[in-house]
Amino acid sequence: MNASEKIMVVIEDEVDLRQIVAAFFRRRGWTVCECGTLEEGIVAVNKLNPDVLFLDNNLPDGLGWDIAPQLAALHPRMHTHLMSGFHPNPPQMPAGVVFSIHEKPISFSQFEALL
């Protein structure tokens, strides 16, 4: 892995959405790790220390947004994108971390704005 390589972890149980997000960023040179469960995603984030995290809320093994503050505190340079198909209360994120909230469905224009 070189210093300019960008790394992303996508934690999303909807396979189609996860693959669309991953493919979009891979085509732009990113290294993307896809995870379908919260447990897999936490392991990946802690192992890879990604630049960007896409984190769904309602996952088969828990609520992603519940763990978002802890992941952000452990990886303060990571930009966290919280995704949800409904309007849950946003988590209380640590001061100084970069995060955003996206309501599903997410559009390609939203992805382009992240580059």
Properties at a glance:
five-stranded parallel sheet, globular, alpha/beta, two-stranded antiparallel sheet
Structure description:
The chain has 115 residues and is of the alpha/beta class. It is 36% helix and 26% strand. It has helices spanning 15-26, 38-48, 64-74, 108-114, and strands spanning 7-11, 31-35, 52-56, 58-59, 62-63, 79-84, 99-103. The chain has a five-stranded parallel beta sheet with strand order 2-1-3-6-7, with helices on both faces. The protein has a two-stranded antiparallel ribbon with strand order 4-5.
Report mean pLDDT, rounded to a whole number: 91
Q: State the secondary-structure class.
A: alpha/beta
CATH topology name of the domain at 7-36 and 45-87 = Rossmann fold
Number of helices: 4
The CATH homologous superfamily of the domain at 7-36 and 45-87 is called Response regulator
- Overall body shape: globular
What proportion of the residues is helical, as a percent range?
Answer: 25-40%
Describe the strand arrangement of the main beta sheet, using strand numbers: 2-1-3-6-7
* Rg value: 13 Å
Order of helices and strands: EHEHEEEHEEH
- Total number of beta strands: 7
Name of the CATH architecture of the domain at 7-36 and 45-87: 3-Layer(aba) Sandwich
Low-confidence stretches are none
Largest sheet: 5 strands, parallel
CATH hierarchy class name of the domain at 7-36 and 45-87: Alpha Beta
Distance between the termini: 20 Å
